[in-house]
Hints:
Radius of gyration: 23 Å
Mean pLDDT: 83
Number of domains: 1
Structural class: mainly alpha
Order of helices and strands: HHHEEHHHH
Helix content: over 70%
Amino acid sequence: MDPYFLSVVISMCRVGGCLMVLPGLSSSRIPVQARLFAAIGIAVAIAAFVPTTGLVVESSTDLLALIGTEIFIGLFMGLIGRLFLQALGFMATTIGTVIGYGNIVGAGIEDGEPHAAIGSLITMAAIVVLLNMDFHHAVIMALVSSYTLMPPLEPIDFAFSLERITHVLATGFMITLQLASPFIAYALIANLAIGLINKLAPQVPVYFVSLPFLIMGGLWFIYLSMPTFLMRFADAFLEFYR
Length: 242
């Protein structure tokens, strides 16, 4: 097989695997045709960066193994962003629960499953900010650089992959926990105060008094902190692709 044609094939496998799980671009809300043409365009554009020296496949078995390896690398690169966004979605759902919006369910952003309305709002806002900051350009640059770190026909370094995923999970949940900590602290203090009021004045209908107070305070926190919240998350997200 011609090495230049083979470089386009394997770049398509790596790019396609990445776009299958990459946040935003892998959403079912985007038509399949649009995602397919985007993957083809990106693959053709970065095929020139694929090293063709020694890129020779002797048999169909070797070709299938090469295709499987390239798809795995692409999935790994897209999974980094997916896990980071899942950490944000988990913390966004937590925020919705602690401020009294847990029972208000809305449509999911990245999948068809329903999520808390506040969680869907925060997740959608984060994806919009990432797209406005051209995070897809950072992903394309990372795909180009990946041919230096993980060249074709080289065995997959599973130890490096697992270490990287572990680092993403640890960092992602730590950063999102830091971003959600003001809401958690507010909910703890507010519920403690409400519990004291209930002990001091049992005749007060605590539920009907506390829930509007929690929701109002939580929405006020979101209004004040959302710009910093989203920018901090976007900066941390982009660091994994730089």
